[in-house]
Amino acid sequence: MGWLEKQAASEGVRVVSGVREHLERQGVTFEPIAHKQTYTSIAEARALGIDASEVIKTIAVRVAGGHALVVVPSTCRLDMHLVQDAVNDRHARLATEEELQRDFPDVELGALPPLGSLLGAPVYVDPEVFQHDTVVFAAGSQTESVKVRTADLFEHEQVTTAPLIKHADEREKEWPRQQG
């Protein structure tokens, strides 16, 4: 038994099989992808040998009454003001690790899948996610991802599309200094 098989035989297998079963029940065609353990979506892209823009990350946000899941391209940074506008809660904030472990005990930290119907939370997706025909996302485990057509992924989810990411403006860009 190889390293990945041993890893999959541990705690992560419940979540991964739960994500797989959920997608199968919905009739979604997907490709499971095992990889070395990663803690961020950028590292996940590197481990898979794909462009980071193809990977989406799901971030849990605490809102009045529970959680919301926000989904953005892995190469982008969340804009909490835009998130607060989207979820209509000016007190919305990122969930803490303790809250994530308590409220999503079967999901490894940093590996939330964008499946609100599985996790019992509303889903908010930045429009840039829909610019990709296919996306890759963490399947609840730091060692397994799922590749799926974007339209198929969100077809059975109740999704709110809203701007959620920061766009650098001219003042934020770091221009290279010219040597003189």
Distance linking N and C termini? 59 Å
Strand order of the biggest β-sheet: 4-2-3-5-8
The tally of structural domains comes to: 1
Overall shape? globular
The major β-sheet equals: 5 strands, mixed
Tell me how many strands there are: 8
Helix content: 25-40%
Can you walk through the features of this model?
Strand 2 (56-63) and strand 3 (66-73) form a beta hairpin. The protein has helices at residues 3-8, 12-25, 41-48, 80-87, 97-103, 116-119, 150-155; strands at residues 30-34, 56-63, 66-73, 93-94, 123-125, 134-141, 144-149, 159-161. The chain is built from 7 helices and 8 strands. The model is unreliable at 1-14 and 170-180 (pLDDT under 50). It is an alpha/beta fold and 180 residues long. It has one domain (3-161): YbaK/aminoacyl-tRNA synthetase-associated domain (YbaK protein), CATH 3.90.960.10. Helices cover 29% and strands 24% of the residues.
Present the secondary structure layout.
Blueprint: H1 3-8, H2 12-25, E1 30-34, H3 41-48, E2 56-63, E3 66-73, H4 80-87, E4 93-94, H5 97-103, H6 116-119, E5 123-125, E6 134-141, E7 144-149, H7 150-155, E8 159-161
Characterize this entry briefly.
This protein has helices spanning 3-8, 12-25, 41-48, 80-87, 97-103, 116-119, 150-155; strands spanning 30-34, 56-63, 66-73, 93-94, 123-125, 134-141, 144-149, 159-161. The chain is of the alpha/beta class. The chain has a single domain (3-161), classed as Alpha-Beta Complex (YbaK protein).
Features:
alpha/beta, five-stranded mixed beta sheet, three-stranded antiparallel beta sheet, 8 strands, globular, disordered C terminus
